[in-house]
Amino acid sequence: MINIASFVTRLMYYSRWALVVFYGGLVMSLLLFGFYYLQKLYKIFLNASAMDNSEVILSMLSMIDMALVASLIVMVLISGYDSFVTKFSSI
């Protein structure tokens, strides 16, 4: 007969693999966000001669924000995958 506590422990342990779906979604959103970033960069270069100083500064701040958001997505991906999905050595 299977010990109920052992069964629940194993069920919780293996349920961590459900998070892979979310991490895969984050990878796809990061790729989409990178495409949007390149599109925005292209538009900035096309309109650079028509932009005044404040528009250039706002565009650059927007690009910095996008880079920080992308970095945050990568940090969540790496730390979450490392913490919850990779093999635990104790079980």
Describe the structure.
The chain has 91 residues and is mainly alpha-helical. It has one domain (4-85). Helix content is 79%, strand content 0%. It is built from 3 helices and no strands. It has helices at residues 4-14, 19-46, 53-85. The longest helix has 33 residues, at 53-85.
Order of helices and strands: HHH
Q: Which structural class is indicated by helix and strand composition? A: mainly alpha
Radius of gyration of CA atoms, rounded to a whole number = 21 Å
Helical stretch count? 3
Summed over residues and divided by their number, the pLDDT gives a mean of: 87
Instruction: Name the overall outline.
Output: rod-shaped
Summarize the entry for a quick read.
The chain has 91 residues and is mostly helical. It has one domain (4-85).
Question: Which key terms come to mind for this protein?
Answer:
91 residues, mainly alpha, 3 helices, 79% helix, 0% strand
Fold blueprint:
Elements: H1 4-14, H2 19-46, H3 53-85
Helix pairs in contact: 2-3
